[in-house]
Amino acid sequence: MIWPLYDSGIAAGLLAGFLFGFVLENAGFGSPRKLTGQFRLEDWSVFKVMFTAVIVAALLLWLSKQMGLMGNGSYYVPSPFYVAMAVGGLLIGAGFAIGGYCPGTSVAGLAGGRIDAFVFMIGMLLGTALFAAWFGPLEQLYLATPGPEGQTLMDLTGVPEWLIILALAALAWGGFRLGSTLERKLGGPYQASDLYRESNKQN
Amino acid sequence: MFPRPFWSPLWAGIALGLALFLTFVLTGHGLGASGFFTRLTAEAGQWLAPELTAANRYLGDYVRGEPLQAWITWEVLGAFVGALVGALSGRRFRPQIERGPSSGVGSRLVLALVGGVLTGLGARLARGCTSGLGLSGGAALAVGGFVFLICFFAAGFLFSFIVRRYWQ
To answer: Can you tell me where the transmembrane regions are (chain A) (predicted)?
Structure first.
């Protein structure tokens, strides 16, 4: 077991972040029109990129454990708080559709020169402050329905990890096909040339 | 200046998956984003209302140390630089207020602010966002990550109907 290295230092943070931001921007995820296109069904990039990334990373994590490079239970798995995570997911989904970003993509948006991404960030700070101010009444919801610590889909279903990954890959394949069909029908996805064509005239 | 095309979703997804896996190998955890904004809120609170922030049961813990001295700060800084390099090398850097063709500057900024507030609230409630809980939790095959993702997409579709005229 040589992995993980448990190096949460400055260099590891900068490197991981650099790759994260570089890929997000190159995927077009700095653009709120492209991002929200997912929910108008005309641009399936959010689904495609996220699902592919989840499967690739999950597969590599599984392989590293199979090969004895990484120990079981050696990396962080968030413990579920079902209701809080469901309500939080609903709020972030609403915030994404309305505001055009999520926290990570707002960083990519700002780095591409977008002032609306900066305003979205100010909103996030206000939202966080509101959460802190209302923590008293919200605490019950925040702590409600905790699940088993570090609960995985394997723990929940009893299905082996490789089969879960295979099922996710099948789901992703279906999503890719459905997405591409709808994109063709609805005139998507957004290309860089659509989004930046008139960019110097905008504002 | 014509922009370079985006990467195809499949290749971008593979690249993101590799970056995410590398992060797990290096640190033992995945990528995140909203944690930085929590720390930034704590830092701002320390400046604007130090006593109130220190006494707050949620943010108080953060201001007992230096709120911004954390791995996530460096990661988000790195993400900003990475995206800047991506935008510049792709000839996609444009100072602008990006909005739908029928949307004015004012309404766009109000919606950005409202969306941000909802996202800030939601990320604290869920203990993570699309990156930390959805992407990283999803890769770890965490049940919580998938609960989050399902609700994220459901609300996204629902609210998209209400605001679609601002984007189209």
So the answer is: 6-24, 45-63, 83-103, 115-136, 156-176
